User: What shape does this take?
Amino acid sequence: MTATLAPPRPPRAGPPIRTRRTGNSQWLFGAVSAAAVMLCAMSIHGVVEGSAWIWPLGMAVGAVAGGAALARWLRFPTALVPAAGLAALAMALTLMFAADESFLGVIPTGGTLARGGELLAGAQTTVITQVIPVVPDAGVVFIACLAVGLVAVLVDTLAVTLRMPAASGLGLFTLLLVPAVIKPQSVGVAGFTAAAAGYLLVLAAG
Assistant: This one.
């Protein structure tokens, strides 16, 4: 009596395996998001005179990207990654605008908050008394770095941490909306082109 061997059954197809994003790609995607924010922030040129504000703005955005990327690399809980970006932004602003009123030059204190209030008051006076585009004094640059830094936290959270690059366009759009509201036609073709390039860069990296 001969036994008939049944052919082997093919393995069942399981769900596709999702690979975890490597550490290098996390840093790269964070840098891409920061670059997109800076491209969109060029629209501020229509309401702030000159280009002296670009360097501190880049430091603020870079600090956010670096703090958030470091938190992801250290495997912080997702909810704490934006907090790390905010902490890095606070330290960068402290270093640039209130180093003498802080601890070790980067850790905010009560004096740092008082200095921030003075800078905000000075920015308000500048905006009220000057014609657009305004002179980039310390108060104006401080409020620009603060606002764009907060947008950078939002864009990094949506595009990198939550892996929703398309939704990050909401944050990038606000960087165009504010100058356009303050001074119509201040953004121009170059501003819209830079913003579109930044958004496409985020989508491509995502």
